Amino acid sequence: MILKNPGGAIQEWASSGGIDEVVHLARNHNLICDGWISLLPFLPVSELKEVKRRAKTWNVEIKFVATSRDVEDTVNSELHHWVLHDLERRAGLSSDERKELDTNLRARAYLHRQRILCLSGLVTLLPLAGNIYETWPNYLRSVSMISAENWCNALARVGVCNSNPSLPVEGILLTMRLVGNAANEKVEKLLSCMEEDKLCKYLLVLGIDEDELDTDAACVLIKQLQSRAELKQQMQSFHIVTNPSQPLGHPFAVCKAWDSMAVKAWSNGADWVLLLGDDIEIDCPFHYRAFYRCFLDISHRLGVPFGFGCPFWNDCSFPGFPSFPCIGRVHHDIFQALIPKHRQESFVNQDFDPYIHTLYAKLKASPCVKAASLKNSIGGNMNPRYDKVPAQGWQDFVLDDFRNYIRPCVPKGTPENVLLDVIVPSFRVQVDYLQSICSLKVPKKVTTNFIVIIDNKEALLRVASDLSDCRNDISVSEAEGILEHYLAKAGNTIRVRCNKFNLGASASRNRGLDESAAEYVLNLDDDLVPDDDLLEQYGRKLMEIDETVVGLVGLVRFPRSPDIPLRHAAVLMSNLTYMFEIAERSEMHNPAWGVTANILFRRTNVRFDLIYAKTGGGEDVDYALRVTEASGGGTLLSVPQARVVHPFWPGSIFTLASHFYNWSIGDGALFKRFPQHCYWSFPNLPETILLTLLARMLVGIGLWDYLQFIIHSFVADFLVDLIFGDYKHRISVVHGIGKDQATTKRSHFFYLVAHVLANLYVVGLECGRLRGHIGRLDIRYGVFRRFDWHIGRLDGAPSNFRKREAQKFCLFVAFFIHLVRKL
């Protein structure tokens, strides 16, 4: 309202006690300016006279003085004032209103001038110009009884709050191939877009390849830019940096080019530098104000000099990724370069942008400036025009650089954020589940990227087509962007990446680890529903632990209900989901591993082994054991409060049995990988069947008789577990505990049938494991051997299990002997 209807705004203020406020100020101060006072000319003449009349009753004479100033100077001064005092945010301006701010300020300035002219008998117009402390006092003395010296003192006091500092200079860094690239038009278009922000004050550094420096295209562009620098007040200076020629066959070292250009910009007075490309489209006419305000916020919040940090553009073609960073000059003060000297050999043309973003991320000094949006038409998540050379291992050394160089530059006691990324491999691409994960509330002291790795290209394309209502062909990169945009609705930073081929869960998690540079990574499955406070619970625990803790095991709860289906109750009674819910087991405060459906690890260079099945099974045990080993004996802690709900796997009883069968084919590879955690035991039912099949061929047992033997053996397997396997405990597992507990119990017949099905699932699992051993030719490592899934954490587990198998095997042998004697 102050912008579009200043008259209405000042009258509303005046009617609610504003006039009394002016009189009160006049009684206590000789000079009053800015704020609502600057809008007094929009009041009717009668009310201005009323102000003077009331003041006289207190023996105070008020004189209204207006300054004559160029409208554009007024607009720029007002814009600067809005930035310094964060008025755009405080006024709640929308993006469209921010785009129109300078237009509205200009319109108000013209209205203000017209009102002043209408009040010529009541308001004195002074053409105040020049230095506020040198020329203004003499002007003001002419309309008052106050001496120039007193005016000078008064202006010195109010000037601290009301005068604007010099505008910072933005350094625009640009490099491109010139010949045949329409360079002139691209540069002109880019600079024109930058100048749409009327406050923008910038210098340009152009990187030209050595082999093009003397070409006609370079000469024309240089002359054009020199002319622009002379004509445009916003453009402070123009500089050229020569990019050294590249040996034939070598990739373009764009990072070194950026480094040279940034140093040139900072050396010539730039307060921050923007790394831009010739193929971008700026979609923000107030980008300068947005970055200026962001640097002010960082400076005020951290108590550091202005120019500390590295905010980045909102790249609409690559959402959430810091493709185009804006680096403050304090970075140059720290490193005397853009790329730290000791890292310059690491960066060729990839990964510098996420590196420098992560360098400041723990202090939240590298935010995405959402309003400053652009689109990268060729780069982004598309293939670049040069061969990519990744920076090897930057994720492993970036936090060392933070601790050694950035952290000492902020005051002691400055809180640090936890960097925690969430990695979700997805084959199913079920949008509802992904959305519930990507909408998690991120705590204030945690910085999180949600990294979704799609392992099913066709499913991604199908989902993207549905989300966009587009029936035309969609590329994979476009589909990634569509899903990314959809999942980012909650305001979190999302990255969607799609594998070229179906690689499996382990390879997808590895790709997620390669994408992340966080201190910690949280692995989640793509078919679960997390509690809203999942990250809050993990974040709270991370604040408490020391370096000896390498991971946190969350709770993966399977749903309980009074009407739980028989097949699902059997899954719970089989104990095959024991490790999913291990976090709430009192005896497992320090588990050796946890399922990757919900487990957090300190980020290391350890990766998931690809020898396990694509669909999973064993890779979680393997990874946890190798991470703890690599850390020199670190531990895992249970965090039962960090809870997700995992629905039961879909399908019939036989589908579930098949699921466990396939699951165990892979996890049997653990036996050979970790023989120290294996022990000998008596043959289980599948192993016994395998042995007796050989005997059947030798003895000549009929098929029907042999089937009876198998049935009797399965019954024996069930009875031993029923009698000696703590049947009541299995029932309690079905009921659950705590807030998930099902209060209504089912009949004993229900539980007995569920117990039978549970043993069927276990036998299916054992069959799959035996098949895996045979398929890998791991007979001596796997057959008649068992893996201690508790890794020594549960006293007596191997001996109790071996005792149970001994009882079963004795019955198997008895049945078989009886069968042979009948022949």
Short note summarizing the structure:
GO terms for molecular function: glycosyltransferase activity. The protein is an alpha/beta fold and 823 residues long. The chain folds into 4 domains: 6-162, no CATH class; 167-416, Spore Coat Polysaccharide Biosynthesis Protein SpsA, Chain A, CATH 3.90.550.10; 417-532, Spore Coat Polysaccharide Biosynthesis Protein SpsA, Chain A; 545-817, no CATH class.
Per-chain topology:
Blueprint: H1 6-28, H2 45-56, E1 64-67, H3 71-84, H4 87-90, H5 95-99, H6 101-118, E2 123-126, H7 136-141, H8 148-162, E3 170-176, H9 183-194, E4 202-209, H10 216-231, E5 235-243, H11 254-267, E6 272-276, E7 280-282, H12 287-302, E8 312-315, E9 326-328, H13 329-335, H14 352-361, E10 368-376, H15 394-406, E11 418-426, H16 431-438, E12 446-447, E13 449-454, H17 457-468, H18 476-487, E14 493-498, H19 505-515, E15 520-524, E16 529-530, H20 534-542, E17 549-557, H21 566-573, E18 598-602, H22 619-630, E19 635-645, H23 653-667, H24 670-673, E20 678-680, H25 685-699, H26 703-724, H27 727-735, H28 748-775, H29 779-782, E21 785-787, H30 797-822
Parallel strand pairs: 1-2, 3-4, 3-6, 4-5, 8-10, 11-12, 11-13, 11-15, 13-14, 17-19
Antiparallel strand pairs: 6-9, 7-10, 15-18, 16-19, 17-18, 20-21
Helix pairs in contact: 1-2, 3-6, 3-12, 14-15, 17-18, 21-27, 21-28, 23-28, 25-30, 26-28, 26-30
